[in-house]
Structure prediction request, 230 residues.
Amino acid sequence: AQSVAQPEDQVNVAEGNPLTVKCTYSVSGNPYLFWYVQYPNRGLQFLLKYITGDNLVKGSYGFEAEFNKSQTSFHLKKPSALVSDSALYFCAVRDMNTGFQKLVFGTGTRLLVSP
Amino acid sequence: DVKVTQSSRYLVKRTGEKVFLECVQDMDHENMFWYRQDPGLGLRLIYFSYDVKMKEKGDIPEGYSVSREKKERFSLILESASTNQTSMYLCASISIGFSGANVLTFGAGSRLTVL
Prediction:
């Protein structure tokens, strides 16, 4: 079964410092990987995706993610964190066992950026 | 931009009540989904629909049913609400295509409290 794991419930970082939110995946075949962000009392917003090609994927709001096949990881990164980046982040993988575009989500990581 | 609208942001219901959560999307998407979000558990798929009147169970369908009479509308029904169904409910839609890279678009969520 397709799955993703987010090993950290919360990540704390000071504003201006680099941030990393970790995600590892388990899939059969080539993975289609996604990152979403959820701000308080809002739905999920798409940040970026990896389908194929360059291992470094750039997305919205200055975020990027690095696909590492040997480590089965897809960590979310940003060079300089902002207080406004504080939110809940979800990693997801497309379930390739169906043709219905289903996504399987991780448990989420709360990012807290302090001033 | 695709818009997914969930009619109720906050609901408070009593145990045993029948509850309807409505979701409408305006971009002619074929696939629609209902997820449930709980702290520490991430998003779990309840039901999805790939066409009008068509539905498939997700990972946690027990206690729920769905209805899709029109392409743009996907309803989640709690036949007899219970306290363990207190949660945030998220609707999402996506267009089908050859690529698995299409992006899910989410509504703002419906926070249901069952007393």
Observations:
- The two ends of chain A are 41 Å apart (CA to CA).
